[in-house]
Amino acid sequence: MAMMRVGLVSPERELWAGEAEMVLARTTEGELGILAGHIPLLGVLAEGGVVRIRPGGGKPEITAAVHGGFLSVSKDGVSILAETAELADEVDVERARQELGDADPGSPEAKRAEGRLRAAGQS
């Protein structure tokens, strides 16, 4: 499968950069699957979304909870510019559950907590 350059950044840091086969992301328009050679586009990332990056070559998938921001696809690759983001293995599951329990259903806080739990593989 063809590879493309992918970068996932937030204002605080670069979370991941490298070559990947595929990127899956939820935007305000729906779920996107991006492969090398995808047409250029700019998408608004959904609150409480999860981004999955498949590096290929038997390497483990990169999963991140992403809250707001943009996804840009160009001939050079995919740039994911998140307002806030954390890798799945960095999610404090108990804290996310507590935040979800304290938040009003459907609120931005609840969506963020749900996204963090989904990224961590929790329901």
Q: What key phrases describe this protein's structure?
A:
123 residues, alpha+beta, 8-stranded mixed beta sheet, 2 helices, 8 strands, 18% helix
Question: What integer is the average pLDDT?
Answer: 94
Low-confidence spans: pLDDT under 50, at least 5 residues? none
Shape descriptor reads globular
Instruction: Report Rg.
Output: 14 Å
Helix content: 10-25%
The DSSP helix count reads 2
Question: Outline of this structure?
Answer:
The protein is an alpha+beta fold. The protein has two helices and eight strands. The longest helix has 12 residues, at 108-119.
What does this structure look like?
- The protein has 123 residues and is of the alpha+beta class.
- The protein is 18% helix and 48% strand.
- It contains two helices and eight strands; from the N terminus they run ββββββββαα.
- It has helices at 93-102, 108-119; strands spanning 4-9, 14-20, 22-27, 30-35, 41-44, 49-54, 62-74, 77-87.
- Strands 1, 2, 3, 4, 5, 6, 7 and 8 form an eight-stranded mixed β-sheet that branches.
- A hairpin with a 7-residue loop joins β6 (49-54) and β7 (62-74).
- α1 packs antiparallel against α2 (108-119).
- The longest helix has 12 residues, at 108-119.
- The protein is globular, with a radius of gyration of 14 Å.
- The mean pLDDT is 94.
Q: Layout of SSEs?
A:
Layout: E1 4-9, E2 14-20, E3 22-27, E4 30-35, E5 41-44, E6 49-54, E7 62-74, E8 77-87, H1 93-102, H2 108-119
Parallel strand pairs: 1-8
Antiparallel strand pairs: 1-2, 3-4, 3-6, 5-7, 6-7, 7-8
Helix pairs in contact: 1-2
